[in-house]
UniProtKB/TrEMBL annotation:
Pathway: Carbohydrate biosynthesis; gluconeogenesis; Carbohydrate degradation; glycolysis; D-glyceraldehyde 3-phosphate from glycerone phosphate: step 1/1. The gene is tpiA. Pfam families: TIM. The lineage of its organism: Bacteria, Pseudomonadati, Bacteroidota, Bacteroidia, Bacteroidales. InterPro entries: Aldolase_TIM, TIM_sf, TrioseP_Isoase_bac/euk, Triosephosphate_isomerase, Triosephosphate_isomerase_AS. It catalyses: D-glyceraldehyde 3-phosphate = dihydroxyacetone phosphate. This is Triosephosphate isomerase.
Length: 252
C-alpha cells in the first residue's frame, strides 16, 4: 500500500531562529495525535545539520535540492551525501522554480535523482505544466514527458523509491488551485504512464503528491481523490496552525 505524505517545502524562508521555532511548533501540534500520513519537512539545507534527532519520532526531514555531482570544486553546491549525513531522508528534485530560475532540464535532473538514490535519499520528483500548456491541451503529454525523460532510466527497484509530486506551475503561489477533478485526472494519467513502463504493481504503490496552493480548506477534497496521496505544501507550511489542518485532512 502506498504512503500518504504531507510535505512542507519552506523554499527560501525563515531565519535560523525562526525555522527552529517552526519545527518545534509543528512538533508540538502533533503531541498526542497520530497522523494518518507521513509528515515531511523540507527547510533550507543549512537547518538540516542542526535539527535534534528527537523530532524524528514524529517528523521526517528532507532537502529542497541537491547537486548532480558527488563532490568537488562546485562552490555553493550541496551534494546528496552531505544531505544524507544529516537527519534528512529525502530531497526535492525538479521543482518548477529550479527548472525556471536555474534552467534545470531532464538530463541534469536525472543525474540528481541518481545522486539522491546512491546516497540513500528518497527523491520527491516534481512535474507540472505551465498555463499555456494547460490551455493548449498539451498538459498530459508535457507531464508524461517530464516523468519519462528524467526517471525512466531507473531500474524497477530504484523507481519504486521515487515519490512524485504534480504541481501545475500556474497554481504555485498564485492562490489558484487545480480542482480536485483536475488533480485526479493528472495523477491517474501519471500512474498510467508509470504502469506502462514498470507494471501496475509499482504504479499502484507509487506515492503521487499534489502541490499548488493546497491549504486546509481544499486539502480534504483533494486528498479524497483515489490517486492523490498527499500534498507538497509551500506557503501554508510556514505556520504550524495552517499546516496542521492539511495533515488532518487524512482524518476525514
Amino acid at each position: 500500500m502506498r504512503k500518504h505524505i504531507v510535505a512542507a517545502n519552506w523554499k527560501m524562508n525563515k531565519t535560523f531562529q525562526e525555522g527552529m521555532a517552526l519545527i518545534e511548533d509543528v512538533y508540538k501540534t502533533l503531541d498526542g495525535y497520530k497522523p494518518n500520513c507521513e509528515v515531511l519537512i523540507c527547510p533550507p539545507s543549512y537547518f538540516l545539520g542542526a535539527i535534534d534527532k528527537k523530532y524524528c519520532d514524529k517528523l521526517t526531514f528532507g532537502a529542497q535540492d541537491c547537486s548532480e555531482h558527488t563532490s568537488g570544486a562546485y562552490t555553493g553546491e550541496i551534494s546528496a551525501p552531505m544531505i544524507a549525513s544529516t537527519v534528512a531522508k529525502a530531497v526535492i528534485i525538479g521543482h518548477s522554480e529550479r527548472r525556471a530560475y536555474h534552467n534545470e532540464g531532464s538530463e541534469m535532473l536525472a543525474k540528481k535523482v541518481d545522486q539522491a538514490l546512491e546516497a540513500g535519499l528518497r527523491p520527491v520528483f516534481c512535474v507540472g505544466e505551465k498555463l499555456d500548456q494547460r490551455e493548449d491541451g498539451t498538459y498530459m503529454e508535457v507531464v508524461a514527458k517530464q516523468v519519462k525523460d528524467a526517471l525512466f532510466h531507473l531500474s524497477d527497484k530504484d523507481f519504486a523509491k521515487i515519490i512524485l509530486a504534480y504541481e501545475p506551475v500556474w497554481a504555485i503561489g498564485t492562490g489558484k488551485t487545480a480542482s480536485a477533478d483536475q488533480a485526479q485526472e493528472m495523477h491517474a494519467n501519471i500512474r498510467k504512464v508509470v504502469a506502462e513502463k514498470y507494471g501496475q504493481e509499482i504504479a499502484d504503490n507509487c506515492t503521487i503528491l499534489y502541490g499548488g496552493s493546497c491549504k486546509g480548506e481544499n486539502a480534504p477534497e483533494l486528498f479524497a481523490k483515489p490517486d492523490v496521496d498527499g500534498g507538497l505544501i509551500g506557503g501554508a507550511s510556514l505556520e504550524a496552525s495552517k499546516f496542521l489542518p492539511i495533515i488532518k485532512a487524512f482524518d476525514k
